[in-house]
Amino acid sequence: MQATWTPVHLAAGVPANLISRSSHCLSVVGRRAFIFGGELKPRTPIGNEVLVVDLDGKDPSRVVEPASAAQAWPIARVGASMVAHAASKALYLWGGRGGKDMSPIETRRGDGEQDTDDLWRFDTVQEKWTKLETQRGTSSEFPQDRSYHTAAIAGDRLFIHAGCPASGRLASLESIELGDLTWSTLPSAPEPGRGGTVLTAIESPTGAKQLIRWGGFCGYELGGPLDIFDIASATWTSSEVSLLNISGQPPKRSVHGLVPYPLGAKSISHGTFGEAKAIAIMFMGEGQGAPKELGHDGAGKFLDDVYALLRSLSEPSTFAWLRIEPKVANSSIAPQPRGWFAFDATNTKNGLEIIAHGGLNEANERIGDAWRLSIGHAAV
């Protein structure tokens, strides 16, 4: 597989103090990236404006803010989730940490509550937020307030997983139908509960929708197994996945990236593993946490590596990790190792384009650069 890092220039049109941040959200719709939330100083939300970036560089970046104090708009927050729904060209924001005491933002816990936060929808055409009034389904509960969780969309269904409530860490999985806005409580993932993990939606060879999870933090960094949730049967399975040509697995990590690879990609052949298809790309993250006495105020050891997750065509329940060594376009300096960054991906005619922005580096600095990782379908 061929991969190339290319810098994305986003400073023009945006005040310098809004560029560098970590623990924020980024979603891509069409050829635009939307950035929300995060922090420049630990536990201090940077603001609640939306940064709009033209990924082709034709238009300057812009800052979208409420027209008046009366306009519906989510409060500033860190550690939230925001994902794009392709069919409606809308973004869905949930959870996070904010307010004066930086506790998990209080979300809806009971029917009829009007004064709590809830699911937010951002119309990327009108560039306006709408606070949605959700409901709980039969035998289900509203999801618990939390931050540093993960989210994914499969079809018209949004999934919320794991994260950090007021104390401890969660392994729970909830979903909401974006049509009728009804929450469902689903089977929890295999323990331990964790924050800073990743969840993404893929399809099995039979077309069944699945979610996959790898890594996270539970007091220490986690690696495998690869945990797989089958949406139709609402069941979890786990698979130990090794690296090709190298012993072991990718380094354990949290606050990293994981995105699905295009369904239409060509199959690839790799030695004894045989014919396979790439189904996801994992990259970067924190490989060793900050000293416990520093916690969120410190920085750990970060990673800059990239891996493709392969699924065997002859044995669909067999997977392997393949290390990818991206080139850097135009002799640019390669992106520095990082975690706590924001990312999303979009399919292209040649493969996949991942957009990654900001994050925290080993000097404990919030960084503001943005990168495009283009991955093609070439044979291995």
How would you describe this protein?
- The chain has strands at 3-8, 25-29, 32-36, 39-41, 44-45, 50-54, 62-64, 81-85, 90-94, 97-98, 103-104, 120-123, 128-131, 135-136, 150-154, 157-163, 170-177, 182-186, 199-203, 209-213, 216-217, 221-222, 226-230, 235-239, 242-243, 257-260, 268-270, 274-288, 301-312, 319-324, 327-328, 342-348, 351-357, 370-376.
- It has 380 residues and is mostly beta strands.
- The strands form nine sheets. Strands 25, 26, 27, 28, 29 and 30 form a six-stranded mixed β-sheet that branches. A five-stranded mixed β-sheet has the order 31-1-34-33-32, with no helix packed on it. It has a five-stranded mixed β-sheet with strand order 14-18-17-16-15, with no helix packed on it.
- It is globular and about 60 Å long.
- The termini are close together.
- InterPro entries: Kelch-typ_b-propeller.
- Keywords: Iron, Repeat.
- It comes from Ceraceosorus bombacis.
